[in-house]
């Protein structure tokens, strides 16, 4: 997963989908991979500028392996890219900069949403109904050569803005430099914004992004956990970073495989003296995400539901069942939440629900035996809305075919024999396509793959025919 959501891999996965479904995937800024696509970047920008001389774009350069705003800078022209030496050693993504973000209190902000990928096969996605909004600390101005280097104006990273003198730690979840997303929605709603539509667009963005990531994930997954053998049940909590444009369209910035689950922050008590203090807003959002993830992933829940009391009892006598341990954790967490809600001066039961639209009113996963616990924050969106999105799972089906014909389980590469079997089983070899022609086709695709970029050759996959070329 970490590999899949790196900036370059994510850009490539989304681009495959953008090529197939341009309208559906226009929530991701146009991106180029550096250094490989530098010439393409220059040529495409020149072409658009020639056609429309009034176009004055800004681009954002982000190192592939960077995080927390590290190494990011803005440019007005491709010639401003700091190519000298660095890009060879540090590949990057250059991306169209969204110049007109939605502002609140004149400040740019982004949204961190937590998404649980509960299972790959079948695909199950849950979205947390509240997230974090992280604010810049300098009033926003559209990019101009004079302000491009103002990181507190353009980058919303908490890790950067915390160092600004203007950063506001707040005891409330609806003020300060880090707030709950629900407090933003509440504010927008009071101004007449259709927040059901905003939620619905965000949910679509999340589902489409996961659909873009799953084909390659499936290939990685089968090489570690071959099909048909009982393996561990994997899940992942992903952090989606989303920007709302002025016209309220959500834009995907990036996906984090290991989102921070810290619920405290550093506070400078006196110059140079720091202390970790609880962060109310982090706690409000993150505790609920972890609690619901544990609840959903509880392996004993399924066994209980499937009426296997023997296994359950057997294990129960050997060690305390996970559910018991979880119950104790849940109790602690719910106590924590109650304390917090009392501090907030509102009962948890009245905790704000996100807007319910057709798409946004996603249901929670299954009836919960722990009905006394506070409302469930993770909402199932897939397969609940599968019907609306299944037509996008074209590459997923390609990956399934690829996996099926790999031959030896646990590999990432389709060999010549597998390719032949694929052609034969799919009845693709006919009078016009002989087996000799199939072999030549295989060699041709493999050669094209091998001559591809350093970035790909360096990846874990190594030489051979990776799944995305089998199409
Ligand atoms: P990192 O992993 O280093 O945090 P991000 O892709 O999240 O990298 O970018 C850092 C910040 O830069 C984002 O939080 C956002 O504020 C800003 N940003 C990133 N991409 C864009 C973009 N295409 N348009 C506008 N702002 C962006």
UniProtKB/TrEMBL annotation:
<dbReference type="GO" id="GO:0000226">
    <property type="term" value="P:microtubule cytoskeleton organization"/>
</dbReference>
<dbReference type="GO" id="GO:0005524">
    <property type="term" value="F:ATP binding"/>
</dbReference>
<dbReference type="GO" id="GO:0005874">
    <property type="term" value="C:microtubule"/>
</dbReference>
<keyword id="KW-0206">Cytoskeleton</keyword>
<dbReference type="Pfam" id="PF03133">
    <property type="entry name" value="TTL"/>
</dbReference>
<keyword id="KW-0460">Magnesium</keyword>
<feature type="region of interest" description="Disordered">
    <location>
        <begin position="345"/>
        <end position="368"/>
    </location>
</feature>
<keyword id="KW-0547">Nucleotide-binding</keyword>
<comment type="similarity">
    <text>Belongs to the tubulin--tyrosine ligase family.</text>
</comment>
<keyword id="KW-0963">Cytoplasm</keyword>
<dbReference type="GO" id="GO:0015631">
    <property type="term" value="F:tubulin binding"/>
</dbReference>
<keyword id="KW-0436">Ligase</keyword>
<dbReference type="GO" id="GO:0046872">
    <property type="term" value="F:metal ion binding"/>
</dbReference>
<keyword id="KW-0067">ATP-binding</keyword>
<feature type="compositionally biased region" description="Low complexity">
    <location>
        <begin position="357"/>
        <end position="368"/>
    </location>
</feature>
<keyword id="KW-0479">Metal-binding</keyword>
<protein>
    <recommendedName>
        <fullName>Tubulin polyglutamylase TTLL11</fullName>
    </recommendedName>
</protein>
<comment type="function">
    <text>Polyglutamylase which modifies tubulin, generating polyglutamate side chains of variable lengths on the gamma-carboxyl group of specific glutamate residues within the C-terminal tail of tubulin. Preferentially mediates ATP-dependent polyglutamate long side-chain elongation over the initiation step of the polyglutamylation reaction. Preferentially modifies the alpha-tubulin tail over a beta-tail. Required for CCSAP localization to both spindle and cilia microtubules.</text>
</comment>
<keyword id="KW-0966">Cell projection</keyword>
<keyword id="KW-0493">Microtubule</keyword>
<dbReference type="InterPro" id="IPR004344">
    <property type="entry name" value="TTL/TTLL_fam"/>
</dbReference>
<dbReference type="GO" id="GO:0070740">
    <property type="term" value="F:tubulin-glutamic acid ligase activity"/>
</dbReference>
<keyword id="KW-0969">Cilium</keyword>
<dbReference type="GO" id="GO:0036064">
    <property type="term" value="C:ciliary basal body"/>
</dbReference>
